[in-house]
Design a protein that fits this description.
- The chain is of the alpha+beta class.
- The protein is built from two helices and four strands, in the order E-H-E-E-E-H.
- It has helices at about 30-40, 85-95; strands at about 5-10, 50-55, 65-70, 80.
- It has a four-stranded mixed beta sheet, with helices on one face.
- Helix 1 (about 30-40) packs across helix 2 (about 85-95).
Length: about 120
């Protein structure tokens, strides 16, 4: 039995300012992660949803990148690009609470596959 219904990882990787890929941290992922944690707590989701930071998810070029893993996800692992507080709220309301994937916020390019 899984410990949480959903486990969310927010990339907070920070690359040098000159790096052509950019980084999720430089695009505001820390503030978006903090908002998600606080809102999930306020909604009483503690114990059902765990929101963590992650190092590089190898998708910073598309970030801020969040990935949701959970016992109830129809594919196991849903990758999102979340740019605003409104995007975060939509994922919370629609995916974490409602069980529906926010299609328009999905990461547009698949993360790199490891050899």
């Amino acid at each position: 039995m899984p410990r949480f219904d959903h486990h969310v990882f927010a990339c907070t990787n920070e690359r040098a300012a000159a790096d052509p890929k950019g980084s999720c941290a430089r695009r505001g992922s820390a503030a978006l992660h903090q908002h998600m944690k606080e809102r999930c707590h306020a909604l009483g989701l503690k114990g059902r949803v765990r929101v963590n930071t992650a190092g590089c998810l190898d998708a910073c070029a598309y970030g801020p990148t969040f990935v949701v893993y959970g016992a109830k996800d129809p594919p196991d692992g849903v990758w999102y690009t979340l740019r605003t507080i409104a995007d975060v709220d939509l994922v919370i309301d629609q995916h974490l609470v409602g069980g529906t994937i926010g299609e328009h916020l999905l990461l547009k390019v698949a993360p790199a596959k490891q050899p």
